TrEMBL record:
This is Nitroreductase. GO terms for molecular function: oxidoreductase activity. Belongs to the nitroreductase family. Gene3D superfamilies: NADH Oxidase (3.40.109.10). Keywords: Oxidoreductase. Residues 1-25 are annotated as: Disordered.
Length: 197
């Protein structure tokens, strides 16, 4: 469920959360899917290197069924209900020499593009739940990922169901959502000395 924060943050951020309860009948149209990826596309990146890629896997299509086989046990009950799974990848090595790091900030840039995508999803009234629990090597093999690209996360996108609807995961969705206070990670004078206590 969404959180209440102090000071207040923008509703698109405040109302974002990771549910495990997706509507298994909801379908994402191609226009919405493109909008999400367009948001990712316009993220900043080091030297405008744009070192990201996505596999777009829609529920009901064959590539999605191939991906679902790779899910960890904990993610198998809920990920298949999402309308789409995006698999995120970043360019880790150079095209010519995969052992040569492409950009020191490639993974950072990918994360930022996914953050853009999640805000766009919130604006469209869609839920997003990112996950790492799947067989990354199997996905790389199955989808022909080149050696210099690294499979990173799955991003489940769809419509969240309400608390009374079928397929709700009450245990996960009822969990307490907590965050570290700003005093533990915002410093000015010296690392470890809180700017605000
Ligand atoms: C890189 C990454 C990996 C994650 N892996 C999983 C996962 O495998 N399964 C899962 O249910 N949630 C996964 N999550 C979701 C986190 O548990 C969730 O974002 C965190 O508990 C904070 O909750 P919130 O997103 O509702 O604020 C992952 C999130 C990220 C960013």
């Amino acid at each position: 469920m969404p959180t209440s924060t102090e000071p207040q943050i923008h509703p698109l951020l405040r109302e974002r959360w990771s549910s495990r309860s997706f509507d298994p009948t909801h379908e994402l149209d191609e226009g919405e899917l493109e909008q999400l990826l367009e948001a990712a596309r316009w993220a900043p990146s080091a030297g405008n290197s744009q070192p990201w890629a996505f596999l777009a896997l829609k529920r009901g299509e064959q590539p999605h069924a191939r991906f679902v086989q790779t899910l960890s046990r904990g993610n198998t009950p809920w990920v298949p209900n999402a309308s789409v799974v995006l698999v995120s990848l970043f360019k880790a090595g150079d095209d010519e020499d995969p052992s040569f790091t492409y950009s020191d900030y490639a993974e950072y840039d990918l994360g930022q593009s996914v953050a853009h995508l999640t805000v766009q999803a919130s604006a469209l009234g869609l839920g997003v739940h990112q996950f790492a629990g799947f067989d990354h090597d199997a996905v790389a093999r199955e989808f022909g990922v080149p050696a210099n690209w690294k499979v990173t996360t799955g991003i489940a996108v769809g419509r969240y169901v309400g608390p009374d609807e079928a397929s709700v995961d009450a245990k996960w969705d009822g969990r307490e959502r907590v965050r570290n206070p700003l005093s533990t990670f915002v410093f000015s004078e010296r690392f470890g000395e809180p700017r605000w206590s």
